[in-house]
Give the backbone structure.
Amino acid sequence: MPITTLALHPPASVGVEWEVDKPLAPLTSIKIGGPADYFVTVSHPHQLLRLARWARTVELPYLILGGGSNVLISDAGVRGLVIHNRCRTVRIDPAPCSLFPLDERPFLFAESGALLAGAARTSINEGLAGLEWAVSVPGTVGGAVINNAGAHGGEVKESLWDVMLLDEADEVRIVQASELDHRYRHSNLKRGEIIQGGFGPVVLSANFRLGFGDGEALRAKAQGFLDHRRRTQPVEPSLGSTFTNPAGDYAGRLIDAAGLRGMQIGGIEVSRTHANFLINPGGVGSGRAADVLALMEMIQERVLRQFGIRLDAEIQRVGAWQ
Ligand SMILES: Cc1cc2nc3c(=O)[nH]c(=O)nc-3n(C[C@H](O)[C@H](O)[C@H](O)COP(=O)(O)OP(=O)(O)OC[C@H]3O[C@@H](n4cnc5c(N)ncnc54)[C@H](O)[C@@H]3O)c2cc1C
């Protein structure tokens, strides 16, 4: 039975607006994806927490959507509840003296729906070092923690201290970063290549441990990263890197060497600027998720045949797939 046939509504105490059959394409960076059966935007961690707990109680599977910059949502959309996370508070906290009597390096606290790039900018403006690499990475802090996002030689695991999450046993817990098994674009909170709604852990907030730096130097470094990205990455809607880099090589180089640059299926194209990016130049209503998947499969098949290397998806496929 489709979940939409159930008459569901969270209690008023959760304080959210409830939407039905909500189009998700505009909320993703590639501008693709069918509707969510149910949809809620949360702007405060208490709403996020109460909503996830309520969904568990009524057995309504949920999916957290951050910036939608690493998820390919199927054309059929997502069954269950999509929780759009816009909990965006970011602040610099001094280190608690009791914990760090001889070390005054501050923390950056961010709610999980805060934009990672915005958090990086806040830290730079305060003359704090450690997140400069993140000024050009789209998406939220929650998505970055899940994926161990990284760029320009930096990654989340280097400065993440701990996260607050709602675990699968319905407890709110502080988890040390070292417990998250962060590796290249991986954490033990990431739920695989194809995901449906479920009852998985929810990242509520994160603390990053930063160092002191020179404001001007930090700004110049961040600007260098932004300039590099403008030169080397497409501006059209995409999900960034489609595949992870295989050991000792680059997915983009292999796709290029396989002669696939500019290849198209439907409205989707292998970017001529960066071959690991699949772009949807027409935006909302143009490309389909099925075309992205077909192009991904063609790339995987050609690269495997030509170089004997299997490319693994970095992006996650979300929702109902045939
Ligand atoms: C142009 C472009 C460039 C990019 N460049 C980079 C790059 O340089 N480096 C890099 O690492 N990535 C890059 N990416 C990919 C993307 O920005 C990152 O993976 C980002 O961290 C995803 O965050 P998000 O909020 O968009 O996550 P989403 O795509 O919304 O979600 C990703 C996954 O995390 C889960 N999730 C999100 N928030 C939470 C939460 N609070 N609790 C539990 N689960 C949650 C979702 O359910 C989903 O499974 C790029 C993407 C684009 C479009």
